[in-house]
Amino acid sequence: MLVVGLTGGIATGKSTVSSLLRAHNVPIIDADVLARKVVEPGTPALAAIARAFGPEHVLRADGTLDRAALGALVFADEGKRRVLNAIVHPAVRREMFWGVLRCWWRGERVCVLDVPLLIEGGLWKWVAKVVVVYCSAEIQLQRLMKRDNSSREDASARLNAQLPIAEKVQYADVVIDNSGSLRDLERQVEQLVQRLNDDAGWSWRLSWLFPPWGVASAVWTLSWRALRRSKKNSSKKR
Description:
alpha/beta; Rossmann fold; 5 strands; ATP binding; Depp_CoAkinase; dephospho-CoA kinase activity; CoaE-domain-containing protein
C-alpha cells in the first residue's frame, strides 16, 4: 500500500484537496480529527493533560477539554507547548499508525495522511510520497484575511509563525498549485489520484497477500527516501 503525506500551509487549500481526494474514494487519515479524538473524556492523553496543567485550568464541568483555556495557557509559553506536544503528538501518531494498518487490512491501494505539520514534525520521513498544497505567499495572505476577517498585520503574524510554504515545497514529491480556480484544482487532484494509483502498481496486492513483502518494501522505500534527502541536504551545503 502506498502511504502518502498531504500537507500545506494555512489558507493554501489543503482541506479542499483532502475533500476532493475523499470524493475519489481515497482513504484519508486526518491528524486534526485524531488530535480531537485522543483527548476525549476517558483517554490517557486527557488525563495526562489534566495532571500537567491542573484539571481546574483545562477541564470543563462535564470533564471535556477546554481548548480555549488550554490554548491560552500554552500560546505564549514554549515550555508548556512542549509539554502539551509531548502528550498529544505520540497519541496522534499511534492512532495514525493503526489507521494505516486498517487501510492495509482492507486491501486499500493508497492511503493519505492529512497532516498540517508533516514537515515540521518529521513525519515526512515515514511516508512514500509527500504532496504539498501550494499557493503564493500573497494569495495565502489575502485568503487568510478574507477567511478570518482579519487585518493584514494579524494575518501576516499568523503566517510568520509557520514554516513558509516555499520551504515545505522543497520536501514535496508532488506540488498541487492552488493559485487558480476550483476547476483547475479538481483537474490536478484527478491527475494526482491517477499518478498515485499508477505508482502503487501491482505490488500492493502482493504486499497485502504476503505481509513480509510489504514490510521489506516499506523499509526499502523509507531508506531510499532518507538517502535522497541526505543527498539534497549535502548539495545545499556546497
